Amino acid sequence: MRVGFLLSSSSTLSSVIGSSISRSIVRPAPSQHLLHLTFHFIPNRTTSNSSQFSRRTTVTASMAFKPEEARVPPALQLPSPPITKFKIGLCQLAVTADKERNIVHARTAIEEAAEKGAKLVVLPEIWNSPYSNDSFPIYAEDIDAGPDASPSTAMLSEVARLLKITIVGGSIPERSGDKLYNTCCVFDAEGKLKAKHRKIHLFDIDIPGKITFKESQTLRAGDTPTVVDTEVGRIGVGICYDIRFQELATLYAARGAHLICYPGAFNMTTGPLHWELLQRARAVDNQLYVATCSPARDPGGGYVAWGHSTLIGPFGEVLATTEHDEAIIISEIDYSQIELRRTNLPLEKQRRGDLYRLIDVQRSSSQ
Asked: Which of 174, 194, 199, 215 is catalytic?
């Protein structure tokens, strides 16, 4: 807050302590956030100079909240989606060491979700491979090299085209040259690859006696936030550990996302504590939808997933969820709820751009 004092004489405020004060307040237009205070000070009668009785002191406090500057560049207006209401399918799948079986099984689940009316289908993180540093290099596919080099994404492309649905294809290990990534592919209803998100924040944790995992031993971090326009609206994509970083979700909201999809595989230690909490936080903070999709739990596996794939609404409400077994969740997304909740709680008009800012480095650089 900037505070300016405009004094009509050289007198200080201390010279009028004990004096009578009259005050007038001029309220500004809401967009100005300017508070103008006018004080009339009547000095003590012991003052010898009678001219001081006409002394007037004005105090002006400028509270420039500047919500439009809380996002740099300014937040994009929420685009009108091609469709307002539709069904989403979250396919919580059991993953085995048999890659071919995993691909066939995922296709069957996608087809079932589409039969139940889903226009958008989301798959889990690392659905074609066991989740382990030993497995990533073996199961990795070169997505850019075409369908023969990437049977997993070839299946997603084909089924999206045949069923006329949008698919957020969970994630698979991706090989690009001598590098490996944890990568999510998004396909449109024509089977076209619309976006490829490489996991930005690698899962490196060490909780003694509970779980230690270092994705960075084999995987590289992506460096590009992903927002993609689809037949079912503008979607931001994150993978598992990405959900812990609220800045990424805030950036997606500032880019006009209606929905953020997080394929993920939280574990048995952090899952019960943080999985639902983080989903609801990302949704309510940004007033948009959040969808997550996990592998089903395999108690005998090397990495045991928590499960609980979930859809969260823009008020932080749990719209649909499941437990840890295989499941196909079908639920409805209604984008009109975003505008409703943003009207109920006009956070974008209340942000303190004078105190804090989120800088979208990529958009700033491009401009």
From this structure: 199
Q: Which among 184, 240, 261, 293 is annotated as catalytic?
A: 240
The residue annotated as part of the active site, out of 125, 141, 174, 215, is 125
Amino acid 277 reads: L
- Would you call 261 a catalytic residue per the annotation? no
Closest CA to 265 of 236, 292, 229, 235: 292
pLDDT values of the chain reduced to their tens digit, one per residue, 367 residues: 443 433 333 344 443 334 443 343 344 444 444 334 444 444 454 444 544 444 444 443 346 789 999 999 999 999 999 999 999 999 999 999 999 999 999 999 999 999 999 999 999 999 999 999 999 999 999 999 999 999 999 999 999 999 999 999 999 999 999 999 999 999 999 999 999 999 999 999 999 999 999 999 999 999 999 999 999 999 999 999 999 999 999 999 999 999 999 999 999 999 999 999 999 999 999 999 999 999 999 999 999 999 999 999 999 999 999 999 999 999 999 999 999 999 999 999 999 999 999 999 999 998 8
Q: What is the CA radius of gyration of the chain?
A: 28
Active site residue 240: yes
Question: Is residue 123 a contact partner of residue 170, using CB atoms and an 8 Å limit?
Answer: yes
Confidence (pTM): 0.83
Task: For residue 59, give the DSSP letter.
Answer: E
